[in-house]
């Protein structure tokens, strides 16, 4: 059984109808549309059948609108104008950055680095509506309605697209006072004998530091009396002489330069670059593309 929805007129039929009305002739409309008179006649017939209304009076002198045809003309103009705006808006979304962008990141990196970057992004692109959420958990971009995740680490979900925003690593360091009291570890095995300030963040394994030296990976088991899910907290503990931390180089570099922290085991580090992760291609979304390009430029300056 055919429903009313199945009989809705097609946009092409409305365009043909308006061409006939404007030219007051099937043949003239066909010439304007680059179609045959038979095609025009068929489209008008289909339109009248779908609307269950006679729209045109036909005669040897031309065509003129019926009362229902006049109402159909007004609606066709409005519908096609809205339709053209709809198509144009979709097209603009691929070329002009505008609309809502939902961004997420982890608490520590998000608060210190992503939040100010997003504020700058909003100033540069005033047609964007930016929302930033910070999570201490693994995020499902599609289920959580996230357009863009700023992720620290090199474990990118296979089902999503990732673009590296900045090369980055975590390094080992401690305060001079702690090292003076407990000694400087000479190997990764020696870390087990030290007070390590362990960070439990997202899905990272707790109590295991995976480190790399000269393309060789080692897993060091670490422990200590203090642990937290906040990178800022463990950094403050390290500055107060409570132990060894594995932290982002750009977070600890200023303290190392001032002598408040000392890098240890400098041959070892943990790769943890900054990535933009998103579920759709940048070519399909101008708003997403400008966000990623802006953040890539912004974060590439973190260690310069």
Write up this protein:
The protein has 304 residues and is of the alpha+beta class. Helices cover 40% and strands 23% of the residues. The strands form 5 sheets. Strands 4-3-5-15-6 form a 5-stranded mixed sheet, covered by helices on one side. Strands 7, 12, 13 and 14 form a 4-stranded antiparallel sheet that branches. A hairpin with a 2-residue loop joins strand 1 and strand 2.
Helix and strand topology:
Layout lengths: L10 H13 L2 H8 L3 H15 L4 E4 L2 E4 L1 H29 L3 E8 H18 L3 E8 L12 E5 L8 E6 L2 E6 L1 H7 L15 E2 L8 E6 L2 E6 L5 E2 L2 H9 L5 E4 H9 L4 E2 L6 E2 L2 E5 L7 H14 L5
Parallel strand pairs: 3-4, 3-5, 8-11
Antiparallel strand pairs: 1-2, 5-15, 6-15, 7-12, 7-13, 7-14, 9-10
Largest sheet composition: 5 strands, mixed
Number of extended strands: 15
How much of the polypeptide forms β-strand, as a percent range? 15-25%
State Rg.
32 Å
The unreliable regions are 1-5
Which structural class fits the helix and strand makeup?
alpha+beta
Order of helices and strands: HHHEEHEHEEEEHEEEEHEHEEEH
Q: Which overall shape is indicated by the principal axes computed on the Cα atoms?
A: rod-shaped
């Amino acid at each position: 059984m055919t429903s009313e929805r199945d009989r809705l007129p097609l946009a092409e039929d409305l365009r043909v109808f308006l061409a006939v009305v404007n030219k007051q002739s099937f043949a003239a409309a066909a010439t304007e549309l680059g179609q045959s008179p038979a095609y025009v006649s068929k489209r008008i017939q289909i339109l009248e059948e779908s609307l269950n209304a006679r729209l045109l009076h036909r005669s040897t002198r031309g065509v003129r609108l019926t009362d229902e045809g006049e109402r159909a003309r007004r609606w066709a103009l409005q519908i096609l104008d809205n339709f053209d705006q709809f198509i144009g808006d979709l097209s603009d979304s691929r070329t002009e950055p505008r609309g809502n962008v939902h961004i997420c990141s982890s608490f520590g990196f998000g608060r210190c680095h992503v939040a100010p970057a997003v504020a700058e992004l909003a100033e540069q692109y005033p047609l964007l509506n930016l929302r930033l959420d910070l999570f201490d958990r693994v995020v499902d971009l599609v289920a959580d309605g996230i357009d863009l995740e700023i992720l620290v680490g090199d474990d990118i979900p296979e089902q999503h697209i990732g673009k590296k925003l900045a090369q980055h690593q975590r390094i080992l360091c401690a305060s001079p006072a702690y090292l003076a009291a407990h000694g400087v570890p000479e190997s990764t095995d020696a870390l087990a004998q030290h007070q390590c300030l362990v960070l439990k963040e997202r899905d990272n394994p707790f109590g295991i530091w995976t480190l790399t030296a000269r393309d060789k990976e080692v897993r060091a088991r670490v422990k200590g009396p203090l642990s937290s899910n906040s990178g800022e907290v463990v950094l403050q503990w390290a500055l107060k002489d409570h132990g060894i931390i594995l932290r982002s180089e750009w977070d600890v570099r200023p303290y190392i330069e001032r002598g408040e922290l000392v890098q240890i085991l400098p041959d070892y580090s943990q790769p943890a670059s900054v990535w933009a992760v998103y579920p759709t291609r940048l070519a399909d979304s101008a708003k997403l593309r400008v966000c990623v390009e802006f953040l890539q430029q912004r974060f590439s300056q973190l260690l310069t």
